């Protein structure tokens, strides 16, 4: 379905719930990271693109004096109510409404009170798949509040507001990548983001003969919650060992020279990050040049490093990558890797467009045979960022970054 069609479907669902038509509809995309995993908190580079899967919010004001915000999601049986006459606080841990509530809190902190309204959330971004359904929801809410308040935020401020919402209301200390790409994505552009300077560069990806294929393993392994902070701590330990602010400042030569003296696990964690930062920069160069075999090999190297050195993959993700390698370039796959934090979720592959159907069928069959699980497989071109579908009026056209291939913004 097109975004316009999804907007119409959301409007219909809104009217079914609330009994009247929405005044405003806003959307924001999820994202897939082509390469650059666990580099963001090491001041490195990431290389995401917005995908053609969206969080969409339809809303209206039932009466001008209401102080209640009523939030309903098609993915939840329990609506959430925010009373603007009382101090705004997070809901219980794990409540989906904490993501939009945190964004509302960010607007209120800026003196931008939207007043009460009814809202319905519909999302086509897979939940828990590592495609940033949370950032899509946050950015869609921020875009909706821009329409309602009549105040359009600077794109960087908007992304940082949404990131803060996730930190403070959802309790997830995420990096800046997800919200940046959801706000600033452009059609046929991949975002090379420097996580230290926060300088984004939009890299053209216009070759229609190549398609991004996303394979959702539909598994998410439960962890103790210690894996992510443990790796952050190991990276910080490595940086301290080298005497540098972050692993962004370390080199492969420094790492090799320190090998005899370093803890073996810390060494492997640092080797992944240092190599991944370099791979990400080279992959961006490959996309600029439409050098797909090179980009594909970098993706495979990224997965091997995440599997062996960073140890955040799982048997299901490894199997998808092995199936892709078996198909190979002759069968239409340039490269494949896990994407997202790991331990389940999605893999991303760079494939020949005319082979998508055959590749999807082969991966689905082999994966089902091995695990008895149906993978969810879909394609996406690099998509546009947050947009207003209905009710924007003058000055509220879809949010777009600069049309040039390179975009510089200040944090």
List keywords for this structure.
single chain, alpha+beta, Ribosomal Protein S5, domain 2, Alpha-Beta Plaits, 2 domains, six-stranded mixed beta sheet, globular
**Largest sheet: spatial strand order:** 5-4-6-3-1-13
| Major sheet summary line | 6 strands, mixed
CATH fold-level assignment of the largest domain: Ribosomal Protein S5, domain 2
* CATH top level label of the largest domain: Alpha Beta
Characterization of this structure:
The chain has 411 residues and is α+β, with helices and mostly antiparallel strands. It has two domains: 3-205 and 382-390, Ribosomal Protein S5, domain 2; 210-380, Alpha-Beta Plaits (2-Layer Sandwich), CATH 3.30.70. The protein is built from eleven helices and 13 strands. It has helices spanning 3-18, 98-109, 133-149, 155-168, 177-184, 227-242, 252-258, 264-288, 292-308, 315-327, 356-371; strands at residues 24-33, 45-46, 48-60, 68-73, 80-83, 117-123, 189-194, 199-204, 210-220, 333-339, 344-352, 376-380, 387-390. The strands form three sheets. It has a six-stranded mixed sheet with strand order 5-4-6-3-1-13, with helices on both faces. Strands 10-11-9-12 form a four-stranded antiparallel sheet. Helix 3 crosses helix 4 and helix 4 (155-168) packs antiparallel against helix 5 (177-184). The chain is globular and about 70 Å long. It starts with a helix and ends in a 21-residue tail after the last strand.
């Amino acid at each position: 379905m097109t975004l316009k069609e999804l907007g119409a479907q959301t409007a219909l669902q809104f009217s079914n719930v609330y009994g009247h038509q929405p005044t405003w509809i806003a959307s924001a995309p999820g994202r897939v990271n082509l390469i650059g995993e666990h580099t963001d908190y090491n001041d490195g580079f990431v290389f995401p693109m917005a995908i053609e899967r969206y969080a969409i919010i339809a809303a209206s004001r039932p009466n001008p004096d209401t102080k209640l915000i009523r939030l309903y999601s098609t993915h939840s049986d329990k609506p959430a109510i925010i009373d603007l006459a009382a101090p705004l606080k997070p809901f219980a841990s794990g409540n989906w409404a904490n993501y939009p509530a945190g964004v509302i809190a960010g607007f209120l902190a800026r003196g931008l009170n939207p007043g009460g309204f009814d809202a319905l959330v519909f999302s086509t971004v897979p939940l828990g798949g590592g495609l940033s359904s949370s950032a899509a929801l946050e950015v869609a809410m921020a875009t909706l509040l821009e329409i309602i308040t009549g105040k359009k935020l600077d794109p960087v401020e908007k992304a940082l507001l949404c990131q803060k919402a996730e930190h403070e209301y959802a309790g997830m200390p995420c990096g800046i990548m997800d919200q940046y790409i959801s706000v600033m994505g452009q059609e046929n552009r991949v975002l090379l983001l420097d996580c230290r300077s926060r300088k984004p560069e939009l890299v053209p990806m216009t070759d229609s003969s190549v398609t991004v294929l996303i394979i959702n393993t539909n598994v998410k392994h439960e962890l103790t919650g210690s894996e992510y902070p443990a790796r952050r701590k190991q990276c910080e330990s490595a940086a301290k060992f080298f005497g540098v602010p972050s692993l962004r400042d370390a080199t492969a030569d420094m790492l090799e020279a320190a090998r005899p003296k370093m803890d073996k696990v810390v060494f492997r964690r640092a080797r992944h990050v240092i190599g991944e930062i370099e791979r990400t920069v080279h992959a961006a160069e490959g996309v600029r040049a439409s050098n797909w075999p090179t980009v594909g090999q970098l993706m495979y190297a990224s997965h091997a490093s995440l599997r062996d050195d960073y140890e955040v993959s799982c048997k299901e993700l490894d199997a998808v990558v092995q199936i892709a390698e078996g198909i190979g370039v002759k069968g239409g796959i340039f490269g494949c890797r896990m994407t997202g934090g790991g331990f389940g979720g999605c893999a991303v592959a760079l494939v020949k467009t005319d082979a998508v159907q055959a590749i999807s069928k082969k991966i689905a069959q082999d994966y089902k045979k091995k695990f008895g699980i149906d993978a969810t497989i879909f394609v996406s071109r690099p998509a546009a960022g947050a947009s207003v579908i209905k009710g924007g009026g003058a000055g509220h056209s879809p949010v777009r970054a600069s049309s040039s291939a390179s975009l510089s913004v200040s944090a």
